[in-house]
Amino acid sequence: MLLFLIEVCVANLPMISRFQAYAFVMGRSINSLTIT
Questions:
Q1: What is the pLDDT of residue 36?
Q2: Which of 10, 12, 13, 33 could form a disulfide with 17 if both were Cys (CB 3.0 to 4.6 A apart)?
């Protein structure tokens, strides 16, 4: 569900901002996986 909301928000952004958003989300996901 959260990913769906992220997709909806990201879909309304320009391509560069979309890439930055994905990079940010991926970075956070990797950080949480590393912490756990």
A1: 63
A2: 13
Q: What is the pTM of this model?
A: 0.43
Q: Residues 6 or more apart from 18 whose CB is under 8 A from it? A: 10, 11
Q: Which tokens go with 2?
A: 């959260």
Mean pLDDT of 7-25: 77
The residue length of the chain stands at 36
Query: How far from chain centre, in Å, is Cα 11?
Result: 11
Q: Would you state the structure tokens that stand for residue 20, as one six-digit string?
A: 């930055």
Q: With the CA atoms of 5, 7, 9 and 15 taken in that order, what torsion angle do they form, in degrees rounded to the nearest 10?
A: 170
pLDDT at 20: 83
